[in-house]
Each structure stands twice: as structure tokens, then as C-alpha cells.
Specification:
Strand content: 25-35%
CATH superfamily: STAS domain
Radius of gyration: 14 Å
Strand order of the largest sheet: 1-2-3-4-5
Largest sheet: 5 strands, mixed
CATH architecture: 2-Layer Sandwich
Structural class: alpha/beta
Low-confidence stretches: none
Distance between the termini: 37 Å
Number of helices: 5
């Protein structure tokens, strides 16, 4: 399934709901284009809801890194929400778990853009420890 992206706004934060694959080809180009459009429209604080993403490959990870760099250069930021465990495992294996702000729920990701709010990060360390052989 190709990547489909729906936009919504919550408390002034742009949320992109992704559905399908985030892989080499048309899919990664579609996301790059949507990030460019969001920045051009002045939306530099983005949440990517990845709960309905079925597959992420290394090109998809590269696209997420590219988006993070673009948003930071524009004075904003990127938060990832609702990752599947297989996607989180990919982040850990690629040693990129500390690069991204990862949250269980979209609301927690939105809250991360407001310094006065309490936020609950995804406990990546707990996940990493569960992967280690015993």
C-alpha cells in the first residue's frame, strides 16, 4: 500500500497521520514533499502519527532524519507518535533511538512542544533492555 497522509491540527501543532509504507520509492518522496509544504506554510512543529504505517525501511528512516533536520533548521521540531514495536526495534538497531522524540500517543507528542506541560516519552531504554539476551 502506498503512503497516504492526512493533515490535522491540534493546539496549533500540525499532525500528519501516515498510513501505508514508508519505504524507498514514491512513499519517501511523498513524505518529503509534505514536509516541504508544511514548512512553506509556516508549520514547523510537526507530529508524525505512525500507528498505521505498515513498513519502514532504511530509506524511510533517512526520510525521517531529513524531516527532522529540515524542521530544526526552520526553528521547529519533529515528534514521532504511536510507533509499532517493530519500528521502534528498527530505530534501536540503527542506533537512532536517541535522535528522535518518540511518544506512545499523539497527545504526548503535542504536549512535547509546550515546555510547561508534563510529557511521557516512550521508554526506549526499557525496550532496549527487553531485546538483550538473558
Amino acid at each position: 500500500m502506498a503512503l497516504a497522509i492526512e493533515h490535522r491540527t491540534q493546539e496549533g501543532i500540525e499532525i500528519l497521520d501516515l498510513r501505508g509504507r514508508l519505504t524507498l520509492g514514491e512513499e519517501d518522496l511523498v513524505l518529503r514533499d509534505e514536509i516541504d509544504k508544511a514548512i512553506s506554510a509556516g508549520h514547523t512543529r510537526l507530529v508524525l502519527d505512525l500507528g498505521k504505517v505498515t513498513d519502514i525501511d532504511t530509506t524511510g528512516l533517512g526520510t525521517l532524519l531529513f524531516a527532522l533536520a529540515q524542521l530544526r533548521n526552520a526553528g521547529g521540531g519533529l515528534a514521532l507518535a504511536d510507533l509499532r514495536l517493530t519500528h521502534l526495534k528498527l530505530l534501536v538497531l540503527a542506533k537512532m533511538e536517541a535522535v528522535f522524540e518518540v511518544f506512545h500517543q499523539v497527545q504526548d507528542a503535542v504536549n512535547s512542544f509546550f515546555p510547561e506541560r508534563q510529557i511521557r516519552h516512550y521508554d526506549v531504554l526499557e525496550f532496549v533492555e527487553s531485546m538483550e539476551p538473558k
